[in-house]
Amino acid sequence: MKQVTVKDVFVLFVRAALRHPWWTFFTLLFTAGAIGLETAQPWIIKRLFDLLEGTTPTVATMALFLPVIAAFVLVKVSGWVCWRIQALINDNLQPTVMAELESEAFDYLLGHSYQFYADTFAGSLVKKIGRLARAFETFADELTFRMLPVTIVLVSATVGLALQWPLLAVLFVAWTAVYLFCNVLAARWAVQADTLRAELDSEVGGALADAVSNAVTIKLFPAHGYEREKLDEVLGRRARAQIRSWLRHDTIFAIQGVLMIVIEVVLMYLGVRAWIAGVLSLGDLAFIQTFMALVFHKVWEISRSFRHLFGAYADGKEMVEILQQPHGVRDARGAKPLRVTSGAVTFRNVTFSFGRKPVLERFSLAIRPHEKVALVGPSGAGKSTITKLLFRFYDVQEGKVLIDGQDIAKVTQDSLRSQIALVPQEPVLFHRTLMENIRYGRRDATDEEVIAAARRAHCDEFIAALPKGYGTYVGERGIKLSGGERQRVAIARAILKNAPILVLDEATSSLDSESEALIQDSLHALMRDKTVIAIAHRLSTIMEMDRIVVVERGRVVATGTHETLLQEKGTYATLWNIQAGGFLGSEA
What we know:
It is a single chain. This protein is α/β, with parallel strands linked by helices. The protein contains 19 helices and ten strands. α8 packs antiparallel against α9 and α15 (483-497) packs parallel to α16. The longest helix has 53 residues, at 224-276. The chain starts with 5 loop residues before the first helix and ends with a helix. Residues 582-588 have low confidence and may be disordered.
């Protein structure tokens, strides 16, 4: 993966701001206007001191100073107006761009593959999105309130000094070049620590999310102290990185202070000598000192600005890396929507592996329209992988997966997944109401349609007992519901979706015997006129399937009905005898 540079991050921010060109232009324009007016003040001070030097103090001479005072008031008021207009525009620009960056990052994030999410902490991703938006805010603030003002002030000071005493201007330019060069070098030195701090901050976010989401497990295995130690170790590394970062920046401030003291003393000494020699007037001397005070105030913030800018780079870098990372599974160029006419599913010589671990080897399976097929086999045989390839969560390495003769690699992912419904083994729900969770199957469904689907899945029985009914929030990942209740919500969602192809991945695994009996009728209704692929370890649930396919080591080793497979005395018969003699026997 390409290394993300400072340029990559800041170019992203500039492009984001330039989507609102007029807001950006006027923000910078009024900032420049306010700073330009600020640089006019030393000239007014010069004029004031020149008048003071050449005028005898009397009441009548006050009239000489009124234009100078009026100019000073005009500059101050105009500057105040510029800052207020700038603030009004900027207050609209920055929040808008930040929201757009978060939205775009979220949108791109959702496009990443199943494997990406399997390899990444959800908590760290959330932190990275938030830090990207805050990094833009820092970048915009530093550019608007520090870098642009200091540039204007430095140019104005150079011109002003050149008009008064060219030799002083040359000295000032040389010092500025050295000062900025040292700051750039120092900032590059400090950014290493800032980047490490940002990476560890993401690690802390991931560790916290991992622990909090498994809080019940921590209680079950009294591991509070253990988890605290693990978190403290990460927090300690982040704290050390933060200390290292701050110490480096403090070193920069110290060097900057020395350079500031040197130039102030030199300019004051040379200015006084020039005044004594008659080269500079009292007004010139006041102009130089006033301008230098303004310059030093702005320049002093350069190193802090570099610190914030490179901190913004470090904060935005991780999310930009994700934004630059190509999606693992992408729509083919010219991909068209999938059109399901009958629902035939074909796996043709499919080979797939995770890294060096082969899962499927030249796997072939043809499922007729509306046929109900069960996949059985030992753990690790590749059954779940088959369904993941059907959803195109992964791309096959060899072979093809076809639906009604259409290669799923050449159709759009959204159209493919809209034609397949899934009832997973472990349903995960949104922390939203039951109405919203069930409606996720078809988001334009009416309340009446949602309730009808819930009744068919026997959800209404437990929903009716809840104080807020369908308006009840289910908690993060549906934690407020039992496993069986979550499973029934997932089935209701699939009923509402009414897709022509249905995948059941251990659809009744979380149900007790009573709940399973209630829902079998709903599943039969759900499967009617659909092509069904069912994965089941509980073999008693698949006896009524049209065909049972036995998968072992990524290959089809047997296929047939329940009765014919028992007669063959192969893998299926072995699995059946284990369950019939063990779990089924114990239940009896």
